[in-house]
## 1
Amino acid sequence: MSLSLYALLIGPFEGFSFMRIALVACLALALANGPLGILLLLRRMALDGDVLSHAVMPGAALGFVYAGHSLLALSAGGLASGVLVAGLTGLLGRTKPARHDAGLVAFYLVTLALGVTLVAFFGSNVDTVRVLFGTVLAIDVRALLQIAIVSTLTMVVLALFYRPMAVDSFDPVFLRMVGGHGMRGLFAALVLLNLVVSFQAFGTLLAIGPMLLPAAAARCWTHRPGIMMVLASGFGMLSSYAGLLLSYHRNLPSGPAIVIVAGAIYGVSLLISNIGNFAQIIIKGNDP
Amino acid sequence: MLAAVITSSRAALDSAARTMFRRNFNGDQLMGSPVADNGIEVREISVRHGRRLALEGVSGRFEPGSLTAIVGPNGAGKSTLLNVLAGLTRPYRGEVVCSARARHGLAYLPQQTEIDRDYPVTVGEIVGLGLWRNFGAFRTPAPALADRIAEALGAVGLTDLIDRRIAELSVGQVRRAFFARLLLLDAEVLLLDEPFAAVDAGTVDVLLALLARWHAQRRTVIAVVHDLDQARAHFPSTLILARTPVAWGETGSVLTDRNLAKALSTA
């Protein structure tokens, strides 16, 4: 019994180095993604995050076209187009809210279409699937190192600037009045960096998933932002581990498997935290 | 280990912090009675919202220590003017002379609707931010500051709600919390956008008492107000705005039927 449990839960990681590297990479990503995802949700910027994750794609595709499978070119290109789109959406932020939404969706669509077109034109269908959904199991030691550096940097910056960043997420005007500035840009830079290093693992369509879903699940359990962040990182790690196991045993694509598990955790969290509401609706009908 | 690294790098970053948040560190000189010039002068200010002019050639002066109500019809540019005074909106023409703003001695309270009531933040945390210049972005707040937070909460009647999240409060209670924060901020100039909108009568009285207190302390207070009787009773100065000043000065001589009719026809 214990032997089969071992084969089920630990064996895959002991037997295959690509599984080990993938696990460590996902855990490192989850660590930084937790607090970033919470701040993204608290700022009500989930959509902006989604747009940024697609913004990485055209640049990464260009890097891929010119330098083949060089990780550095891929990341540099992704970062460049991400910065460009972040700057443009920043300008959008000054327009009316309704137009802001439409503008974000426009960016989302155009960057995605541009990225897919570039990859399909210069590469193959396999490449297209790879940039859309990522290849967690293809992460090598150099990519892992890149993830570790960004994850560490994110945690240190968040620890140092936590207070002004938290205030900026709630009341940016106040922070400006007392003389603080630059937090929005710093936060956007952290999100972008993490999306760029997540790109290889989860692809442009799913990169925002490991950031948002555990955070959304964590919000269901507590009202304290600090605890929320810890929970979000924990949920992210749990879904990484469970998702990798699921993909190994059932022969599923690993990135989507991780996102599905994260989604399931969110669903269960939502259900449990709202069980009172649901019960009321069932008993009393739809009136709240 | 990690904690030690963070603590030591915190010290190392203190100088960076000083540059970034410089003004917080000399803020203490401003404590007590604001005696420096805390008036605001506006010169020929025009603001565009798209093709429409929200403000057109606004000129005049908010005297140091004055308590001014800004009244006017919808779309008169009242909020826009406060935004310009606060430095949040840049006019496409004209300038604002406000030395308090450069000293970070200016506090701005936006309309209720600008506040995200779902944000998981407690009354105590909001009010505590009023003591920002005592700890800034990086230092640990001194435990003694808790007394001052309690005192400010007492002044607005929220003592028992210190640990409540704002999602659990009424509109009036949230207003009170933000006024308690203003109380601790100790600003020379206070800009309040519709502070009395949608709040209960008891809260209005508490807020008006605070306005009177700030006025007595010679702070410059400017509030957008809808209730003309309120303006007459509690504000010595009034500005009637309809994209451009219709009348500006002592409340009694400003709030006449003729001026009000004129404001309605210009807006």
## 2
Amino acid sequence: MLIELKKFGTTLVSRQAGKEAYAAFLPTLRQAGQNEDILIDFSGVNTFTPSWGDEFLTPLKEQVGDRVKLLHTDKNASVKLTLEFLGQIHSQ
Amino acid sequence: MQDSQLIPIRKAAEMLEVSVDTLRRWDRNGYFPAIKSSGGHRYYSMDQVELFRKDIFSMAKSWITDQIGAEPEAEFYCPNSGVFQVRLIRMEKELLETRKDLSWASLIVSAVGEIGNNSFDHNLGNWRDIPGVFYGYDLRKKQVVLADRGQGVLATLRRVKSELATDRDALHTAFTEVISGRAPEARGNGLKLVRLIVERYPLSIDFSSGNALATLRHDKKMRISLQKQSMEGCIACIRF
């Protein structure tokens, strides 16, 4: 299953917006096969912060674990930094 | 100053894009004093007005330190997070028009977004008087200013860490610990990310709450100092 994050917006910055995006995404997620990878594509995202990311990626990873794969994360400094930061705080 | 033309209050208000009442109030509280004619009419020197016009930080500081809470000028006022979001996106667009460097723009927008959204997240339903934030930016001066008349960092974090005693302690905690005034919700990342951005990229941020000032510079360790004037709420200046 391929999810283009830009369809949720290109400036992904607030907790409310991240929460709402995940809630809107859940019905789609439920349609994924039990072993199907969930590909999250960051192409076209301008700004991505941990507030938004924590409300979307964190529950997604809790739901599907290693089946989440992130694509095109290296073209944008805020995407790279936020993913690094979220990785740090969740490993503490 | 002697050579600078004097202009009447109405003209000064027009140039500064504030109301005449705002200028009268600023004169009364000493923030932006007027020159009074013998008839009691207020005048301002053109130099004084020109200088002030360009200083968004002074305007924000005046707003949060004003004893009487009033909405800031519409151009800078975000009464809720929705308005803030729209204006943040507009700034992002303007940054990209100035310099076609998405990474650079995205880091500035990230820092501004996290600081601004913090104001709403921690003060929703609990504003001291005026809800929302002051949000102004000047891309020529490479400066963004955010301010709120909220509870301030100490009062907010004391809800979850009652041993915090001073504004300095509170700011230090806010910038170094993953903790939130809205615990047990899992949040509290924003200012940590802001600090990480400044460590990695050439931005500088001054963030005040109460009588403490956090100074974040790209090539230096974060410093938290006492400032003379104590301010309720928060004010931040981001330079890039």
